[in-house]
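Quick one - first record:
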Amino acid sequence: MATSYFPSLRYFMNNIIIIRKLSTVSTPTETLKFVPKHNPVSEANINNVQSFINNSKKMLFLTGAGISTESGIPDYRSEEVGLYARTNHKPIQHMEFIKYPHVQKRYWARNFVGWTTFSKREPNIIHYSICELEKEKISTVVTQNVDNLHYKAGSQNVIELHGTAFRVICLKCEAFYDRHYIQERLIQLNSHITPTSTTIRPDGDVDIPLEIIEGFKPPLCESCGGMLKPDITFFGDNVPRARVEAVKSAVSESDSLLVLGSSLTVFSGYRIVLQALEEGKNVAIINIGPTRADHLVKLKVSAKCGDILPLVI
């Protein structure tokens, strides 16, 4: 009789394993410098998010740059610490990269120098928490980020909405390359340049002196000699149709949507929320600052995602 009233031993053991795993995830203080100012999370917020998750059987996660700030990667739009607030940097535009060889050369030189720092960033407590919830809720993760941190944390069912910085594609024959392999080739082509930088940006692009760019040799496709491009949807480009359809299907197959660390300023992310609401899904948002959909959802929590998710697991 007792077993019908209390959780099983396996339930407790699984939770102990999860708690131990998450407790080993540390967040060095220096990686938190890009986290915006935020209020402490309240018990009410935790309870509300817990109820939202408990009431979901198949959850869809939509993640943005705000979850990677705790891994030391800045977002674009946060006050004071976001990339736009600290610099005049403008992300590479798709048509400029496609049209102009000098833009391609400049981009690859900067990406080459910034790659070492960018590629070594590690997942944080949010990524690991999502991974655990992904298993429990049979869920899908749609991320606007190109930093590969969901995969590093162990998530399997991930749709990278804007592509990934860890894969490279030829613009001519569409051959794919691993970004680490391209870095090795770039080191051989540009042995006179030391590929290190103390700065970091959401897309891996960093500022470097003009003289480095002038003497830089960009990578070319080994199959056809065409220009290579990170498999990222640059600003001004469209998300590939097949990926859009995959996201639409994931939304329809889920019963709820949890948005984490995204302002939803970019329409490709915002339309996911619109679709979920049109289909009658439960939608919740956890983000430090305001978002484009705050007025549309019943649950918006203004807090650091890393302060909530480990607790609701």
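second record:
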Amino acid sequence: MAHEEDALEHERASWKPSPGLAVAVPDPVHNPGLPPHRERITDKDPAAMKRAVRTVYTLFYLSLAGSIWAIAAYMLFPIESGRIVDIRHNNLFIGLGIGLALLAIGIGAIHWSKAIMSDKEFIEPRHATRGRDTTREAAVQVFRDANEESGFGRRTAIRGSLIAALVASILPGITLFRGLAPHSSEANPIAGDPVALLSHTMWKKGERLAHDPSGRPIRAADLTLGSAVHVIPESLAELSHHDGYLEEKAKAIVLLMRLLPEQLPADQNKLEWSYNGIVAYSKVCTHVGCPVALYEQQTHHLLCPCHQSQFDVSRSAAVIFGPAARPLPQLPITVDDEGYLIAQSDFTEPVGPSFWERH
């Protein structure tokens, strides 16, 4: 094999084109070089440079003001009041504050790079050598050069305003975490306990099941086979938004479905909690609390659109796919003397996500 390779290499080295045979030799690509450098107005006029510097740190301080306003809006328009106008103003003004904070930082950084930082082109040769002392020293020198060219170390007004704007820009997001769970108080001692909050809803013995959002009670005879109805407690309509309508509805929402009675095996279902094939399950996904609202009547599967958890209604809403950790809580139901569907009791376990520490 070695002799064959040597012979092939010798043949290639000794080959010459035959007389009259044209051989195309490509011309090397011409390097056009860099275009002529044009000085910026800030490079030629010191007054223009000062104006650019003032513009940049003004934008950074404007970003700082936007962050402060977002925090102030969170306090001025508390969503805990339950009033629609406060919720709208909360979303609007916090969004405007955060948007202004981020936009001003972005515009200021771009203007800084275009008008103030060094505008000279240079070529950076690259090679495969890495990790030597000379390489590390060169890297340190690059940072020194970048600091010198950008003026970050010299221009204290820009540096200080940028640091303040960046620090302040994260404060609105941190402030918003406060609204994830209400704080307990003497008037509402369980407000800070998610387990207690999710363990009880407006459902109680004799509470009629009603259409969402009309509040019209539901007769068992009106439900067709394969139907899925969004349900709320009938008494929910008596609450106003100020009295916690949205909070109570978020916990008590239910999906009502009708199957053939024989499609509910007795060994996998609590038949005493259903009525003639009609079952009711919490709409709050046991993964992170998204609304489970997609029902496939042929397979009797419920789908959560957020993270694709699937529950089998014919088997006590058992989890058959996805990240949900437990079945959907079932609402025990029956009918009253007038044929309306009513609850036998509240849910017997907490509704909602499973990551809370449940008793």
